[in-house]
Amino acid sequence: MKFKPTVMLHGSVLKPLKEGQKAHYCQNGLWHSTSKVMRVLEQTNEHVKFETEAVCYCINFYGDSAGIVTLAA
């Protein structure tokens, strides 16, 4: 069984997260992209947990839903 490193951070995430697409998040004013999302483990108003092929991410949002940026379909 292969263990993946876990990245825990505070930031904003472009939602919705979709399996098979990259996740985009903002931390300290800089935007970052991950590799393709393999699984979304948990999404709440306070945080999101998901995994890519090599890394698990736990991104805690700033304050009361201030970190959530929702994309219009």
Kindly state the mean pLDDT as a whole number? Answer: 87
Q: What level of helicity do the residues show?
A: under 10%
Shape: globular
Number of domains: 1
Sheet of most strands? 7 strands, mixed
Radius of gyration: 12 Å
Give the oligomeric state: single chain
Q: State the end-to-end distance.
A: 38 Å
Share in β-strands: over 45%
Number of strands: 7
User: What is the element string, with H for helices and E for strands?
Assistant: EEEEEEE
- What spatial order of strands do you see in the largest sheet? 1-6-5-4-3-2-7
Structural class category: mainly beta
Please tally the helical runs, counting DSSP H or I stretches of 4 or more residues. Answer: 0
Give unreliable regions as ranges: 64-68
Report on this model:
By secondary structure, this protein is mainly beta. It has one domain (6-63). It has strands spanning 6-10, 12-15, 22-27, 30-43, 47-52, 56-60, 68-70. The protein has a seven-stranded mixed β-sheet with strand order 1-6-5-4-3-2-7, with no helix packed on it. It starts with 5 loop residues before the first strand and ends with a strand. Residues 64-68 have low confidence and may be disordered.
Brief characterization of the structure:
The chain contains no helices and seven strands.
Indicate the topology.
Layout: E1 6-10, E2 12-15, E3 22-27, E4 30-43, E5 47-52, E6 56-60, E7 68-70
Parallel strand pairs: 1-6, 2-7
Antiparallel strand pairs: 2-3, 3-4, 4-5, 5-6
